[in-house]
Write a structure and sequence with these properties.
Layout lengths: L8 H24 L9 H17 L11 H25 L7 H26 L22 H23 L8 H18 L11 H25 L7 H48 L1 H10 L8 H11 L3 H8 L10 E4 L15 E9 L6 H11 E11 L2 H11 L5 H14 L4 H11 L8 H10 L2 E9 L2 E8 L14 E7 L5 E7 L10 H8 L15 H8 L7 H6 L4 E3 L6 H4 L4 H8 L4 E3 L2 H4 L4 H17 L1 H18 L6
Parallel strand pairs: 1-2, 2-3, 8-9
Antiparallel strand pairs: 3-5, 4-5, 6-7
Helix pairs in contact: 1-4, 2-3, 3-4, 3-7, 5-8, 6-7, 7-8, 23-24
Length: about 650
């Protein structure tokens, strides 16, 4: 049975590369009567390979599912060949390489397509019904007629003509067109109009946000540039100025991007205003709830305040339907009095200081903590306002949830690129000391990227104990309890290389150096993770969300442990031996094993890789067996265990998690 794993992309890559080279050799032989490719083709070959590589990955030719259905795979090959031709013609026209043979370029693309079709036909004949079916997951959907906006159409027409004549003026110093350029304008605009309808550029239902509108413009511009390049190269229209063609497209795209930005800025501005009014309405609602209370005091002389339970329930439901039930599941609200509850909606930590000078037992902030400039200071101020055992309820736009929403908001093929820049700006820059000051100076900390692990870790660092956290809507809500003093004696690590406090030889504390594989502040969640997630096979934490995606890769191939060589050079560890553990993890061992561990220097490669135990108890037994053997025969034990470990790692695929 044919496998469908993505690991087959390398085989597809090799086959596609060989087909391309076969097409190049065949076309060269047909034109020159020899298989030898002349040295003058070096730049052309570099362009062919580069554009083919771009087409291979952007068109996702590496996906096995793209070739499962025969007719679909044939159409896929035609599209890829057309994309290669577009790219090559664009490069040739851009660099004015008019001497290159049209037959050679189009012949290579055509032969590559035919060879791919031939190979696909053979595969489908060989594998038959085992492969010839439609990919699952998407049903055929019938869509209605696009809703064309006359305003968008007329706006596009005006901007297109304006851009064309502006470029003509920049070239010649006059708006008057040269001979044959009116025909170029008609051809150019006719092509632009046709592609705009194909890409649904004038369909206003696709204007979900600024980026979707801009994506349609970019897609149309790229297709028009590609087709114009093919026409200019195929029909030798080199007398037309490249600056006129590509300059008009660039100015048009810039004008449309600016116009759409102003439109969505105005539109979003109105939405933001409505959002602000709704928040103000919530504050007015709370204020109005106090009015009957004042009336009661005047008329009946009562001094008791109405219960906040009804108000709290209404506010929570208005903020998020399931929020009240989430809070009530973690906090006993019936035992709280009115004066012990504070409802906030602020991203300014300075507002915490103006709260009444009395101990609160429940503080709820309905605003995201992503917009708070000094987050730890904010937590510490609330910590000071809370009574011992008091609760803080807040929400965060977590990195994980934001990424999901980000990928839904942006169109396909653009979101991966956009997210890289977003991640660098809001995730990397705040972590680097050289860029941190500039980041906070310009952004004021707004929309900072915070992972779930970092948020909960900051709470534990500031003296809270997280009782519960839950994804509700598009935010992550948490309930934390004031449980201890803030960990101001500890310095949270954010750098690439971290120092971990471990128990070394003779029970002496040592600092182990490793590459960071966890989110910042993760070191303060060790106890929380263990209590809530327990251990899985191999003694690792089950569902450890503190580990980053690239951190899992580093751990799998021990790249994170490279800095431990420095500990080995300092004589704090040896190559093979029991792993140095934190005091919390060491406390899980019984007293006799803790004593035995303290008598042996820890190592980089543990006995785990020699015995491959599956459960925590088996790991403990494996270490005990190793330590007993080491006491009797140190030298022999080291070599026997090291060789067994290397055998399991190199030949049996033993890996760290």
């Amino acid at each position: 049975m044919l496998r469908t794993k993505r690991s087959y992309w390398a085989l597809i890559f090799l086959a596609d590369f060989l087909l391309l080279n076969a097409a190049i050799l065949l076309m060269n032989y047909m034109r020159r009567g020899t298989w030898k490719i002349p040295g003058t083709y070096a730049k052309l070959l570099a362009a062919i390979y580069l554009i083919w590589l771009i087409v291979f990955f952007l068109a996702r030719r590496y996906r096995v599912d793209s070739y499962r259905h025969y007719l679909g795979s044939i159409f896929f090959s035609v599209k890829s060949a057309a994309s290669l031709a577009y790219g090559l013609c664009f490069v040739i026209v851009l660099f004015s390489s008019a001497s290159i043979s049209r037959l050679l370029i189009f012949g290579i693309c055509l032969l590559w397509m035919l060879l791919a079709m031939l190979l696909l036909t053979l595969l489908h004949l060989i594998f038959g019904k085992r492969w010839n079916h439609r990919p699952a997951g998407k049903a055929l959907q019938l869509t209605g007629m696009p809703k064309i906006s006359l305003f968008l159409f007329l706006n596009d027409l005006v901007l297109f003509i304006f851009s064309f004549f502006v470029v003509n003026y920049l070239r010649r110093g006059s708006f008057r067109l040269e001979p044959l350029y009116p025909e170029l304008l008609l051809l150019f605009y006719g092509l632009w109009l046709a592609i705009s309808f194909i890409t649904k550029k004038y369909d206003y239902t696709n204007f979900q946000n600024y980026y979707y509108a801009l994506a349609a413009c970019i897609k149309t511009g790229l297709l028009v540039a590609a087709i114009m390049s093919v026409l200019i190269f195929a029909f030798r229209l080199s007398y037309f100025s490249r600056f006129q063609v590509y300059g008009s497209l660039l100015i048009l795209l810039a004008l449309e991007a600016g116009l759409y930005y102003v439109y969505f800025l105005f539109k979003i501005g109105r939405i933001d205003k409505d959002d602000i009014e709704s928040i103000e309405a919530m504050h007015r609602y709370l204020k109005q709830a106090d009015l009957p209370q004042e009336k009661d005091v005047v008329e009946s002389g009562q001094t008791s305040q109405p219960s906040h339970m009804k108000i709290l329930m209404d506010v929570c439901i208005n903020n998020s339907p399931n929020l009240f039930e989430f809070i009530r599941g973690a906090v006993d609200l019936d035992k709280l009095s009115d004066s012990e509850i504070a409802l906030l909606s602020t991203q300014d930590s300075g507002n915490i200081e103006i709260l009444p000078d009395r101990p609160f037992r429940l503080v709820i902030n309905f605003e995201r903590i992503n917009g708070i400039l000094w987050l730890n200071q904010y937590f510490l101020k609330i910590h000071k306002k809370l009574a011992n055992g008091g609760y803080l309820v807040g929400k965060v736009d977590s990195l994980e949830l934001h990424k999901q929403r980000f990928f839904k908001a942006y169109p396909r093929y653009y979101r991966e690129v956009f997210y890289i820049f977003y991640f660098i700006l809001h995730r990397v820059m705040p972590r680097i000391p050289q860029t941190q000051a500039a980041y906070f100076a310009f952004t004021k900390g707004r929309n900072r990227s915070l992972s779930r692990a970092e948020t909960l870790g900051r709470l534990h660092f500031c003296g809270f104990k997280v009782l519960a956290d839950k994804e509700i809507g598009e935010s992550l809500f948490f309930v934390a309890q004031k449980a201890k003093t803030a960990s101001l004696d500890k310095s949270p690590s954010k750098s690439l290389i971290i120092k971990l406090k471990r128990v070394g030889w003779n029970g002496q504390p040592i600092e182990i150096y490793k590459f960071r594989t966890m989110h910042p502040y993760s070191e303060f969640l060790q106890e929380y993770i263990y209590e809530n997630h327990q251990l899985k096979e191999g003694g690792k934490i089950r569902d450890d969300f503190r580990v980053t995606e690239w951190g899992r890769f580093f751990r799998k191939y021990w790249l994170d442990e490279i800095p431990m060589i420095y500990n080995w050079l300092r004589g704090e560890i040896k190559i093979f031996g029991v792993r140095p553990l934190s005091r919390h993890f060491l406390s899980l061992y019984d007293a006799s094993l803790q004593e035995m561990r303290s008598q042996i220097k820890p190592g980089l490669i543990p006995p785990y890789y020699a015995d491959l135990p599956r459960e925590f108890a088996q790991i403990v037994e494996s270490e005990k067996k190793y330590m007993q053997a080491y006491k009797c025969h140190p030298w022999r034990t080291q070599w026997v265990y090291l060789l067994r470990s290397l055998n399991n790692i190199l030949f049996k695929g033993a890996r760290s998690e």
